[in-house]
Design goal:
5-stranded antiparallel sheet, 19 strands, 180 residues, globular
């Protein structure tokens, strides 16, 4: 089930009921997008239409919206798929398995699990060039958000409580801004 409500709270409206396990939801002013299996779905807030936007390869992990485009991490293919507003599809190879993604005007930011434990947080340019911003013995527990030069993510360091952590697109030290 996919449901919507106002940002300020209120009644919950179920808008799509034929989805078993929708996940990784993103919304714009006019559309709601989510992943289910290997498909990217949408629901139009303007007219109530819904359907599959793109059938992606297995391993679709997370989505982000920016500048009229939809960004999807495909872990199985080690790439970011960009679906442009005009329907064009671009694939950006990362060389690493991308998980969570956040996007702003300065680039795409992804998390990637390191084989010996922990995660990297990286900037990926449109040509696939990768810059390493952060690495650590933390597990990313929620999507990566990018806003006004800052990166926000949920993280936990093993058995410690989960935290909301803030970094910057330039790699300034991570700061815990809340423990939950």
């Amino acid at each position: 089930v996919v449901a919507i409500t106002a940002k300020t709270g209120g009644e919950i409206e179920r808008v799509v009921s034929d989805q078993d396990e929708p996940g990784d939801v993103e919304a714009s002013a006019d559309e709601v997008y989510w992943l289910s299996g290997s498909n990217l779905h949408h629901y139009a807030l303007t007219d109530g239409s819904s359907g599959i936007v793109q059938n992606l390869l297995a391993g679709a992990w997370d989505i982000a919206l920016h500048g009229g485009s939809i960004y999807v991490t495909e872990a199985a293919e080690a790439q970011i798929v960009v679906l442009g507003a005009s329907g064009e599809v671009d694939e950006i190879p990362t060389g690493l398995v991308p998980n969570a993604i956040g996007v702003d005007d300065s680039g795409s930011y992804v998390t990637s699990h390191v084989p010996d434990g922990g995660y990297w947080i990286l900037r990926v340019e449109s040509d696939g060039e990768v810059s390493y911003l952060y690495n650590g013995d933390f597990n990313v527990t929620s999507p990566l958000l990018v806003d006004d030069g800052y990166l926000y993510l949920g993280a936990n360091w093993g058995f410690a409580p989960a935290e909301i952590v803030r970094g910057t697109v330039d790699g300034a030290p991570l700061v815990t801004i809340a423990s939950v």
